[in-house]
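C-alpha cells for Aminotransferase class V-fold PLP-dependent enzyme. Go.
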Amino acid sequence: MLLKNDVATAVTVLKKAPDDETYWSSVRALMKPMYTHTQLVNTRRGAAPAQVRDRVRSLVDLSLSYELDVHEPFRELKESGSSPRIRKLLADYFGAGDDEIALNRNAMEGIATVLNGLTLKAGDEVIATKYCYDSNLAILRQRAEREGIVVKLADIPFGRASDDEVVAAFSRLISDRTRLITFPHVVARSGQVLPAAKIAALARSKGIFTFVDGAHSAGHICLSLDELGCDAFAACLHKWMFGPRGTGFLYVRRERIADVWPLWASWSNKPASSIEKFEEVGSVFKALPAAIPDAIDFNRGIGQEEKSARLRYMRERWVVPLSAHERVRILTDIEAKPGTGFGAFTVEGMENAAFTKALFDEFKIHVLAFEVEEDRSLKGIHVSPSLSNSIEEVDRFVEASFTILDRG
C-alpha cells in the first residue's frame, strides 16, 4: 500500500523504505513496547526505546542520592537539568541556534512561559484557534480576565483546508491591536498541519509575535525552526521523539528573547536576552534530562525523513481501505503535504464512543472517540499508530473495524 510519492522518496532519498517490514520490525524490537492491548493512540506519549529507559534506570539512584557539590555525578548538568551539550543536540536536530533553545520539563512549561510572559495590556488582542490545547486557551482566558486582553479564535475548517484558507482565517481577525498569534503546528485529533511558515510571515509583516505549539510536530514531521520563521515554539520530547517523560524544550528566536518574561525570575541574573533565563526552574530529577542524548541518538539512527514516511505509511494503511466503506467518512486529508501519521473518521449511523467501545471490548484495540473542546459539534474517531506498532496491528484494526461496520 505504498503510495507513488512515497515509493519515489524511498528510492531516491530514504535510507529505509516505509514498507520495509524487516527493518521496521527491528526498530519496534528496540522500543520493546509493553502494551496490554493494541494501542493506536500515541499522541499523549510515545514508548521510549529500551536504551532511553535503561539510561534512566541506571541513573535513578544517583539522581536521588547526591547533593549538588563537587562530587555531583551530573556536574555537566545545571540544577535545571540543562547543559550546553543538550541544548546543542536539540538545536541541531530542530534547525535552530543553541542560543535559542531552553530545556523545559514539558511542552506546557514552554507554552505557559510564552503565553504568560509576553507583555500585553488591556485591549491588546491575541488570535488563537479552537484547536489549541485547552490548557493553552485557559492561560489566555485567565489573562483576559485579569488583564483585559481580548482573545479571538480563527475559524479554521475542520480536518481539510488549504493553506490559503487557513492563512485567510487568521488574516481576517488581525487588527491594529493584535499583538500575538498562537496556534498548534499539528491539530492533535485530525493530524492537519497548519502552514506555520506562512502564518508567521503574515504576522511578521505586521509586527505581530507568533507562537507555535509544536507538541505534535516535533519529531513527527520534518521541520526546521529557522525556516518556520515563528518567534517561539514549544514542544515535549516524550511524544514523537520517544524521550523521557518530563523533558521538553522552548525555542525563542534570539531577536525576541528579551520580549518574553521567564515564568520564574532568573535567580542568577541572566540578562533579558539570554535563553537560559527560561531554564531556572529549581531542582529537577536529573535522570530524565540526562537521557535526552540517548533519545536523540535513537532518532538520528532512524532518520527524521524515514520516521515521517513510516508514520504516513501506517496512516494510509488503514485510511485507504476504511475510506472505501460506505459508512465511513474520513476527516483527514491524506493528500496534504506534509502529512502526519494521525487520522480521524466518523461512522454513519453509529456513535463514535459506541464504535471505540466495541473495538476495545471485542478486539482489545484502543482508538479514541473525541470532541473538540471549543466546538462539541466537531467530533470523530482518532487513530495515531507509532513506531512501536506493527503493521499487523494496523491491519488487525482494519479487519476489526470492518467486522463492526458490516453488522449494521
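The mean pLDDT is 92.
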